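Review form for a predicted model. The reviewer records the input and the model, then writes brief findings.
Reviewer: anonymous (R2)
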Amino acid sequence: MVEFLLIVLAYLIGSIPTAVWVSKKYFGIDIRDYGSGNAGATNTFRVLGQKWGTIVMLIDVLKGVIATSLYILDAFYMTDELQRTNFMIGLGLAAVIGHIFPIWADFKGGKGVATLLGMALAIQPIVAVSCIGVFVIVLYLTRFVSLSSILAGVSFMVFILFIFNEKETLYRIFAILVALMVVLTHQKNIGRIIRGTESKVPLFKSRDRRKQRRKQ
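Model under review:
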């Protein structure tokens, strides 16, 4: 019974529609009516800019960390590492589902990448930091948040299966599912990248100005 209640609580935490609430409170709009129509950090970067995109992303990551860490409220999982990892995966997935289908926002949310990152930070911080490195490098080179998210999700699978060689079967399956989910939820973005119509976020403006001056 305790496990069920914690899973529900994790879902409710994941359901906090950060992008929707921020856009309504500070801009008087619903972020889902603009850009890609998605209620996530990527679209917030695109529509509201770097500052608010960063705020939304950090809060969505925090949702994943908090929800996945709810296991501490059940004493059983403090002593059994294998069961704790499995339960943390369940809690994290509940939060991600909440982010994608938020009860507080008509079940129309984001793609869950930031919340997945928070989940990974809570379960295996080294892998999560490695994925953040991939995200930052790709974002710096391309300014596509969507492509950065896709490659970070795929790299999560690569790190778990091959580089860190995680032995826990459920965690390996989870890593594969993460990569598949990230790719599937970004199909439209992939299509726009291929067609050359995907929007770039307004980051690294000083770098772009330097490049422009060199061209002149």
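Findings: DSSP finds eleven helices and no strands in the chain.
Further findings: Residues 2-206 form one domain.
Recommendation: see findings above.
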